[in-house]
UniProtKB/TrEMBL annotation:
<keyword id="KW-0812">Transmembrane</keyword>
<protein>
    <submittedName>
        <fullName>Hydroxymethylpyrimidine transporter CytX</fullName>
    </submittedName>
</protein>
<feature type="transmembrane region" description="Helical">
    <location>
        <begin position="36"/>
        <end position="54"/>
    </location>
</feature>
<feature type="transmembrane region" description="Helical">
    <location>
        <begin position="174"/>
        <end position="191"/>
    </location>
</feature>
<dbReference type="InterPro" id="IPR001248">
    <property type="entry name" value="Pur-cyt_permease"/>
</dbReference>
<feature type="transmembrane region" description="Helical">
    <location>
        <begin position="66"/>
        <end position="89"/>
    </location>
</feature>
<keyword id="KW-1133">Transmembrane helix</keyword>
<feature type="transmembrane region" description="Helical">
    <location>
        <begin position="203"/>
        <end position="225"/>
    </location>
</feature>
<dbReference type="InterPro" id="IPR030191">
    <property type="entry name" value="CodB"/>
</dbReference>
<keyword id="KW-0472">Membrane</keyword>
<feature type="transmembrane region" description="Helical">
    <location>
        <begin position="317"/>
        <end position="335"/>
    </location>
</feature>
<feature type="transmembrane region" description="Helical">
    <location>
        <begin position="146"/>
        <end position="162"/>
    </location>
</feature>
<feature type="transmembrane region" description="Helical">
    <location>
        <begin position="270"/>
        <end position="289"/>
    </location>
</feature>
<feature type="transmembrane region" description="Helical">
    <location>
        <begin position="341"/>
        <end position="362"/>
    </location>
</feature>
<feature type="transmembrane region" description="Helical">
    <location>
        <begin position="382"/>
        <end position="404"/>
    </location>
</feature>
<comment type="similarity">
    <text>Belongs to the purine-cytosine permease (2.A.39) family.</text>
</comment>
<feature type="transmembrane region" description="Helical">
    <location>
        <begin position="110"/>
        <end position="134"/>
    </location>
</feature>
Amino acid sequence: MTSSSAVHGTSPRDEVPYTLDEPAPKVLGFWDQSAFWANLGVSLFAFSGAYTVLAPDENGAPTLSIAAGIVAMIVGTAIGGLMLGLSAVPGARTGQPAMVLLRGLFGARLSYAPTVLNVAQLVGWGTFELIVIADAARALYDGVPRWVYVVAAGVLTTALTIRPLGSVRLLRRYVTAAVLVALVYFYVQLLREPLPDLTEGSWGGFWIGADAALAVSISWVPVAADYTRHARSARGAFGAAAVGYSATQIVAYVLGLLALALVAGDSAQVFDPFLHVTLGAVVFAVFVLREADQSFANVYSTAVSIQNLVPRADRRVLTVTLGAGTTALALVLNIGDYAGFLSLIGSVFVPMLGVLAADFFLGRGRGGWDLSRTAPARWSMIAAWAVGFAAYQLVNPGSVGWWAALWRDVREALGIAPPSWMSASLLSFLVAALVTLLVGRIARFRGR
């Protein structure tokens, strides 16, 4: 921080402003953004959560074969990457973070509801990331208590959030190359192992597996604009998010599924194939250290989301508080219902993206949204979001017991029997977008 910025309480010119009252600098080029999204695409979740794209049944047994899971993951990731790219554009064009954009979509006060949901899911993701980092670190060396790794990961995460754009540039300069080398090394090592028959199993539940992969991509949709508001061009923001993220998530998930095949589908042992190869522990440490960029992004975006509720709150104070909070949660929670968590995220934010994309690119957004703190309520957009959400639940109500039972009862009462090939994500996105365009046309007709 320069002396003048310290005196006047303003952020450096090449950094994220401390509050929403200051303009966002446009300092991230295409390669800065590509490296950022590419690093987010490589996650320990791709290894520990690889089983989710195999559409596990109620007993946790995989439905899909490894080969079918790979194809489902590629399809889901490719679709999710395009959705992520779409969500990146509004931030680059307006210079506003994700939850502030929802003022234009829903109205200022109505934007508080999705903001609270986003804060809740980001706190969950941030907590899960610290848990995964600690578990992976203990797999490397279990000579210290688990809490030491949790606290160390929490401290590193919090430190990265103080200068977020500096952290993005750090990823481009140093971390990306190390991650790529580690990926290539493990591909060579794992493919030398005697793999089982990857086609053993079925293709039933293909779209459930694809939706699981898509949900991981979609989890970044509600925060994409937090970073692309600093992009130099909207085109670069779209390409970096859509291609950079998708390419590395596909590479990482295939590697995770190969590791899962080597341990006979036991997700609790999925790190073992990495650690048992020559120099495996040393190279795997790259993934463990790099995972901090995931927790950094979650904690930082939680703070930016809260600023939609409290615009003059200092993001530094928020991130330090949130970093301490997620660390405390990671010390007492476990990662039990990861698949159910992903399903719930997708059912909320996929249809919201459908509403946002339709209205921003084809509706009122073409003339410019009102992003002020007094933006009027747009209940029709909330209705479109709700219809899309319901469409998702009718196809795939998830695995949370009482919630899934409720929507199965609704489906039975309506006489709906969705075919197994139907994608809940695609259907809810399209339904939400079409309802948005319909109510927009009705509003224009009534206005004339």
